[in-house]
Structures are given as C-alpha cells and as structure tokens.
Design brief:
It is built from 17 helices and 13 strands. The protein has 391 residues and is an alpha/beta fold.
C-alpha cells in the first residue's frame, strides 16, 4: 500500500513501484492506495486520487479538514480489509505519519498481521518540532531519506529508527545532463530569459503571482527580458488565467521545465523542490514564499533553520536570495533579479556553488536503492542484488 499526496510524491511513488516490480521479478505483487496519474500509470489501484486535493498551510488544511478526514478513514479501512505486507508513505508527512500510527494501532488488534511501515522522504523534523522524530521511531520500521545530512541527524534524535540515505531522485531524473556553462548563457547571444516558477499548488499561485507578475514587468521593461512562466499541469494554467493578475507579456508554458531551465538566465521560484531543479541546471535563482498569516505566525515560532530553499540548506549559505512573507514584494524580487542579470561574475560564483550542492545528492539509482531497502525488511521478499551506494 502506498500513499502519495502531492505531484512530486506521485512521481517518486511511481518510480518506486517500477523498481519494486523489477526486483520482485516474477513474484506476484499487488499495489494499491492513493496518489495521482503517474502512480496509476505504474499499475497501482487508486482508491483516492489524492494529488488532486493537494493543500499547504494551516488555513488550507483546516478548510479541507472534513474531506481529508474522509480520505483518511477510507484508506485505513481499505488497509484493514486488504492487510498489506508493507505500507509506504511517500512524503506528505502530515497525513502519512498519522496514517502510520493509525495503521500500527489497527494491526495490533488483528492476529497474524504485522505490516512493515516505511516513510520515503523524511518530514522536515530537523527544521521544526524535532520531537516528532521519536514518534516516527515508535511507529516505523524504516525511514528512507533523500538528503545527505538526515541520517546523522536521526542518529542523534531517534537512534533506534533504521534510516537509509538512498540519494535524491533528481539525480536520476537528469542523469547525464550538465548545466549550461555561464559563458554560453542566453544573454551572451543577446537574449535574456527569466523563468517564473510560482509553485505546484493553486494556493501558491494565488499568493505568489500578485508579486511575481509586477516584478516580471520591471524585468521586461528595464532589462528587455523574455518572461516565461512554467506550470506543472493544465489545471494550474486554468488557475493562473482565472486570477485577476495581468498575464500580458508572459509566456505561459505547461511542462517542459528541463528545456526551459536550459535556456534560462535567471529564475524567480517558490522555495519548494523546484529550487533543486534550478540548482541542477546552474540557474541563478531568487526564491520566495508567501503563505497565510496564521501559518506564517506559527511557522516563524517553530522553524529552526535559517533558510527555506533547499540549495541554501545544503550549502549552509545564501546561494539563492530568499524573500519570505512580507519581504516577498515585487520590488525586492525585481531588484534582486536585476542584480543577478547585471553581474556575470556573481552568476558564475553561484553556478559553482550549485554544482557543489548537486554533488552532495548522491549517484543515480535512488528508486532502486529504496526498493531494495524495503524488500530487505519483508520476510521472504529479499531483493535482487543492487550495486553501488548513494555517494
């Protein structure tokens, strides 16, 4: 049984299922749970197409609480009925960690059922509420991490929890792709392209576009930049077009992020996973994030890390300028992007820092290593031999 609640998790889950099938060989396997289009295409029986309902922030969660509570109980009942050998929560920690506790409790009342419980992608307990590590330790049989510093952190905070760093999936996604050298960037050919990457959820577009689009207008007027906004799916294009913000002069593109990054001079991006995509292609990036007032007030009191963009966390330095909540204004974003556009030496320095960040993410094969680790904890289902480690 697998549960993926967001588009990025759907991608990870599909790769994991394909790797599990490959390592199981001819042994029969049934996969079911919740996810999205990619997981369904991998042959997983979806009870709930959960990625259609992705939310972020406390206010969004509260507004949709009843709906998610219904999904939770539907999936839990299905688990009790079908009794999977393994449950894998893919990211989506707020939902999946609670589901794991409920599943462990339910299984304890059913003789002969001892499901292995796995979390693939650690929740960011190292950023806030470190005590949650002990809860994971009490319910999970295995935690699969995609960030290199996480096993060491858990060794200190939850030493009885088996933790493996399997490498970051982005390495597989772009294996063999090199970033564009800074001296052959598009502006050297007389064309400056600025990418707008506002996020993968409707709420992120609603909060980010009111500052991104005025910033883009300044970049177009003052630097002659071509402005391209890349969205992950057609639904988000519909959301963007339904908002009151003016999209005039902005090329709106669905999908094709890799090609867009290959020709980008600078990006302005939400602090999510997409900042690692920018890092892979060596694109100097200005990061932003805005959320509801309630979520921000809670977050600023409990978050214990200095940066939100993952490349900054991995580098332990401000490689990507960050503007959060009230600081994320159109003027701040435009000024920061203009500084990058006008300073080729700074862009070159950033690209070198980003190469170091990417080198820390391990070698290709994350899904294969994750599958092998899962099968090792299921009696009678040991994997075929997988060579190579994540480093």
């Amino acid at each position: 049984m697998l549960i993926a609640g967001e588009p990025s998790g759907d991608w990870l889950a599909a790769d994991l299922v394909n790797a599990l099938r490959g390592q199981l060989g001819r042994r029969p396997a049934h996969f079911f749970g919740a996810g999205g289009e990619r997981l369904q295409a991998a042959g997983v029986e979806l009870t709930v197409e959960l990625t259609r309902h992705s939310v972020i922030g406390l206010s969004d969660v509260l507004r949709h609480y009843g709906k998610f509570r219904g999904f939770f109980h539907t999936l839990l009942q299905q688990a009790i009925d079908e009794k999977p050998d393994v449950f894998v929560g893919i990211d989506f920690g707020g939902f999946n960690l609670r589901f794991a506790r409920a599943l462990r409790k339910a299984a304890s009342r059913i003789p002969g059922w001892h499901p292995r419980i796995v979390q693939y992608v650690s929740p960011q307990v190292w950023a806030s509420r470190a005590g949650r590590a002990k809860l994971i330790e009490s319910t999970h049989d295995l935690l699969l991490c995609i960030l290199p510093f996480e096993p060491g952190w858990y060794a200190q905070h939850a030493p009885a929890l088996p933790v493996e760093f399997v490498g970051h999936p982005i390495v597989d996604r772009h294996a063999g792709v090199s970033p564009t050298p800074i001296d052959s960037a598009p502006e050297a050919l007389g064309k400056i392209t600025v990418l707008l990457l506002p996020g993968s959820r409707p709420g992120e577009l609603q909060r980010h576009l009111p500052v991104l689009l005025p910033a883009a207008r300044r970049l177009r007027e003052e630097a002659g930049a071509t402005i391209r906004m890349v969205l992950p799916n057609e639904h988000l294009r519909t959301v963007a077009e339904s908002l009151p913000e003016d999209l005039t002069g902005v090329e709106v593109q669905v999908g094709g992020l890799e090609n867009a990054l290959r020709t980008a001079t600078v990006a302005i991006a939400s602090t999510g996973t997409v900042t690692l995509e920018c890092a892979w292609f060596g694109v100097p990036t200005v990061a932003l994030y805005k959320t509801s007032w309630t979520t921000y007030q809670i977050g600023r009191r409990i978050i214990q890390v200095r940066w939100l963009a993952m490349p900054n966390l991995l580098a332990n330095a401000s490689v990507m300028p960050e503007f959060i909540q009230g600081e994320a204004t159109a003027d701040h974003l435009a000024n920061s992007a203009l500084e990058l556009l006008h300073d080729s030496d700074r862009r070159m320095q950033i690209q070198e820092q980003l190469r170091t960040v990417i080198a820390s993410l391990g070698s290709p094969g994350a899904a294969d290593r994750a599958a092998a680790a899962i099968l090792r904890i299921v009696p009678g289902h040991e994997p075929t031999r997988i060579g190579g480690g994540p480093s």
